[in-house]
Specification:
342 residues, mainly beta, Tachylectin-2, Chain A, five-stranded antiparallel sheet, four-stranded antiparallel sheet, 21 strands
Length: 342
């Protein structure tokens, strides 16, 4: 098994209004010698914005802003900007997050050239009603039933409101592959993948064709006991000579509720829609008290990494209340993954 070093909690909530209820699920990127961390900050009534700090090393906070850097501005995100991830492609930073309007939770994009000024590009995942998704998924044969089970129409809401299929965990690959931008997204219970030339392609016609061939776009499905309920994207993929390391989250149900663990798989370098291998066990799961007790019990939710030599430092939300780091060896992880190729 891969050896894990738990480096502990690095960020906690403060008394500031915007983060008084918790901090969690950070996007992390190293640029110009500095590690930048954009985190979900939760205020009362579960309203989220994105806070920001700079690290002097991988686990020490150097500077922390007292105001959020990305806040809800539009109707589609009026209840929160949640769970950011970040990559840099072609000299442009892509920060994806989940926008939540109180009913719909959809993948959204903001871009920046300097990590300071952000331009919101809006929702980039499909706005597809549940019933339409149901019709399209039924054309995919045997996958239809599990998608129905996890994506039931939320009948508690007013019928006059547009209600769309939840599509979260949008994560870009950190470079173009064969000239295309690839990104992962998640409609439960699987992880899907999409490829485009540019963001403008993500229009209703694109998504209609995408769903007509939906089965082809599923890159990972639950396989092992620790991820049997559903899975979702975690950190931006890490490029190696053997393929893309994908650290994702796996969920299984217990008598005490869902347990979220950090998991790992390997995707093909030139064809990332192909799974090469995955670990048959979680990288790490909730074991410490601060991972087991919080706003949501039993959660290790990985969302960002930085690489230092042979070490991967994984940043994750712990029990939806605080941010922690765990470290492991890239070479050791690859050795384990390559023992279990498909």
């Amino acid at each position: 098994m891969v050896s894990i070093q738990r480096d502990g909690i690095i960020l906690r909530k403060t008394t500031l209004d915007f983060e008084s209820e918790g901090v969690l699920n950070p996007a992390v990127i190293k640029d110009n010698g500095k590690t930048h961390l954009f985190y979900r900050a939760v205020a009362k009534n579960n309203f989220s914005s994105i806070g920001y700090c700079i690290l002097s090393d991988y686990k020490t906070i150097e500077t922390r802003l007292s105001n959020p850097v990305i806040i809800p501005e539009f109707e589609y995100e009026k209840h929160g900007t949640e769970d950011p991830r970040i990559v840099k492609i072609d000299h442009l930073f892509y920060l994806t997050y989940t926008s939540y309007d109180g009913i719909n939770a959809l993948g959204t994009l903001a871009v920046s050239e300097d990590l300071i000024s952000w331009k919101k590009m809006g929702i980039i995942t499909p706005k597809i009603p549940y019933k339409k998704f149901q019709l399209l998924s039924e054309s995919q044969g045997e996958i239809a039933e599990k998608y129905k089970r996890f994506n039931k129409f939320p009948s508690t809401h007013k019928k006059s409101k547009d209600i769309f299929l939840w599509d979260k965990n949008v994560i870009f690959f950190p470079r173009r592959i064969n000239g295309k931008l690839y990104f992962l997204h998640r409609i439960r219970p699987d992880i899907q993948i999409a490829a485009i030339e540019n963001i403008e392609e993500l229009n209703p016609a694109f998504w209609k064709d995408y769903f007509l061939h939906f089965k082809q776009h599923i890159v990972l499905s639950p396989k092992y006991e620790h991820e049997v309920s559903y899975i979702g994207g975690g950190c931006p993929p890490i490029e190696t000579e053997y393929g893309w390391i994908l650290i994702y989250h796996g969920v299984h149900d217990t008598i005490e509720g869902y347990v979220y663990s950090a998991c790992a798989a390997l995707l093909d370098l030139d064809h990332p829609e192909k799974e090469v291998s995955r670990l048959p066990y979680p990288l790490f799961k909730p074991e410490e008290e601060w991972e087991q007790k919080g706003e949501v019990k039993n959660v290790c939710f990985p969302t960002g990494t930085i690489i230092e030599g042979d070490a991967i430092h994984i940043y994750y939300g712990a029990a939806d209340k605080r941010i922690a780091v765990a470290s492991l060896s890239i070479s050791e992880l690859l050795k384990e993954l390559l023992q279990d190729t498909l």
